[in-house]
From TrEMBL:
GO terms for biological process: proteolysis. It comes from Epilithonimonas xixisoli. Residues 227-482 form the Tail specific protease domain. The lineage of its organism: Bacteria, Pseudomonadati, Bacteroidota, Flavobacteriia, Flavobacteriales. InterPro entries: ClpP/crotonase-like_dom_sf, Tail-specific_protease. Keywords: Membrane, Transmembrane, Transmembrane helix. GO terms for molecular function: endopeptidase activity; serine-type peptidase activity. Pfam families: Peptidase_S41. The chain crosses the membrane at residues 350-370. Gene3D superfamilies: 2-enoyl-CoA Hydratase, Chain A, domain 1. This is Peptidase S41-like protein.
Length: 512
């Protein structure tokens, strides 16, 4: 017990020192020569590990961008000042998964405890970015008496339009796709703002509403005793909620299933993320219900689904076909050892790392033996690249897949496969993820030696088992339906409504 107590004390001391050291480093100005070394280091790692680096940009063009960046670095920079210079060059690869990560300020246990007693500063309102403008979509607690539909012009004297333009340079979609960016900036705007400014207790907003410009002071408020108590005593998740991957904090389901017609002729499955959590049970139960109901139509909604597990979409696809299939081609790598560079220990605590260390040699050996070489290319055996049999309760009726610009990664892979096999009608707008595949799977998370910025590099080229279009674009819908993204409140679901109308028309023509 004495030894255990000593270890715990040492871990606490190390944690405190780590927080202090990290935050001091954020203010450090790194010499020009070291920053340029980080630029070269970044490019070297991309060339070493990224399996399709010049897919959307030529080598000459990317060489020029990295060389030009070094010329612009003429004075010492802090790590995050350097981030805003390097990130756009990394993003110019135009591969949506590839994004440089900045360094965040760390907080002590006491500070984290204090944060839990306060409400988030920005999260009390819902926002929507349209073009270069930021609007308040909903103000649930009437913070600052700001009306829904109000435009926020400035945050602490910074023009919102300038911030949006700045942050848009930090990421990309796949290839020449342009539908992804408008969704992703809505997800990340305040993350980037917090990166630059930290967790603030208050901000001054300059707003525009009904042609009147106003200034509003937004302050972080203390949680009421009842709110804090409710957060500590979260309700238990039922077995049914678990299967739908229920999130207690947001009170929302990751997966949901229902019938949209009283006669159960139209089944509807919505998947927000392919998390793999309880996926097999969810699909087993859902497709049993669909079969028992003898539904003629299935609507699969993967709008705003940024992707996730290949295993889950392989399982899902096995319920959407009555033929043996192979979902993806065997993933490609840059070398036979690439898979061994996966981040085995990343994200683990010191204690869990010690416990998992004995299994590390087996992890390395497994990745090596799952790799192979053929025709001067290296491949990795992945479950979804093997032939799979359809499920007993596979749906054989008409399938509609609803997509938009935030349908990315795994969502695009399953959509591309269903479209290619003529197994589904794709409805909506071009997906944010590429039709011909992506670089993802697992990462080698590289730490730049001098700035300590983080660069996760996808190790596998994952492509659906189809004939490629080679258009550098997303999955194009069979029926394009404008989701009217410019509508701030977005109450009218145009894509789903079009689909239901098309089903009604088909029923009229076919009689079912």
């Amino acid at each position: 017990m004495k030894k255990l107590f000593t270890v715990l004390i040492l871990i606490i001391i190390y944690s405190c020192q780590s927080v202090k050291k990290n935050n001091l480093f954020l203010e450090k100005r790194i010499p020009v020569a070291e920053l340029k070394k980080d630029v070269d280091f970044t490019y070297q790692k991309l060339q070493r590990f990224h399996p399709n680096l010049y897919w959307y940009i030529s080598k000459d063009n990317l060489d020029h961008k990295f060389d030009s960046l070094k010329i612009t670095i003429q004075k010492p920079l802090t790590p995050n000042e350097f981030f805003f210079k390097l990130a756009p060059v990394v993003a110019s690869v135009n591969e949506g998964h590839l994004r440089l990560r900045s360094l965040s300020r760390r907080y002590s246990k006491a500070e984290q405890k204090e944060f839990k007693t306060k409400k988030p500063l920005f999260a009390l309102m819902d926002y929507k970015i349209i073009g270069d403008k930021l609007f308040v979509k909903e103000n649930r607690e009437n913070v600052g008496k700001i009306k829904a539909g109000t435009e926020i012009l400035k945050i602490n004297e910074e023009n919102v339009a300038d911030l949006i333009k700045k942050y848009r340079k930090l990421y990309s979609s796949d290839g020449e796709n342009r539908t992804f960016q408008k969704y992703f900036i809505n997800l990340t705007f305040f993350n980037y703002y917090t990166l630059e400014n930290g967790y603030l207790d208050s901000v001054k907003l300059k707003t525009l509403c009904d042609n009147v410009i106003d200034e509003v002071q937004l302050k972080r408020q203390k949680k009421k005793a009842k709110e804090a108590s409710e957060e500590k005593t979260l309700p238990k998740v039922t077995a049914d909620q678990k299967i739908q991957d229920y999130d207690v904090a947001s009170k929302s389901y990751n997966r949901s299933f229902k019938f949209l017609k009283s006669d159960s002729s139209v089944a509807y499955i919505k998947v927000k993320s392919f998390s793999a959590t309880y996926a097999k049970k969810f699909y087993d139960q859902s497709f049993r219900k669909i079969k028992n109901a003898k539904s003629d139509y299935l609507i699969l909604d993967v709008r705003d689904n940024l992707g996730g597990s290949l295993s889950e979409i392989n399982t899902l696809y096995s319920y959407l076909t009555n033929e043996k299939f192979t979902l993806i081609k065997v993933p490609e790598m840059t070398s036979k050892t690439s898979g061994m560079y996966q981040n085995y220990f990343r994200g683990q605590s010191v204690f869990s790392s010690v416990l998992s260390a004995p299994a590390y040699p087996f992890f390395l050996a497994g990745n090596y033996f799952f790799s192979s070489k053929k025709n001067k290319k290296y491949y990795f055996r992945e479950f979804a690249s093997r032939p799979t049999k359809p499920k007993e309760n596979a749906f054989t009726g008409k399938i509609y897949v609803l997509v938009n610009g935030a349908s990315f990664s795994a969502s695009s892979i399953i959509s591309a496969k269903l479209k290619f096999e003529n197994r589904a009608v794709i409805v909506g707008e071009e997906t944010g993820g590429a039709n011909d595949g992506t670089v993802a799977g697992v990462n080698n998370t590289v730490i730049l030696p001098n700035s300590h910025l983080v660069l996760p590099i996808g190790l596998f080229l994952i492509r659906p088992n189809i004939e490629f279009e080679n258009k550098s674009r997303g999955v194009f819908p069979d029926y394009a339906v404008d989701p009217n993204f410019e509508d701030i409140f977005g109450t009218d679901d145009k894509i789903l409504n079009w689909t239901l109308e098309d089903i009604d028309f088909r029923k009229t023509v076919t009689g079912k």
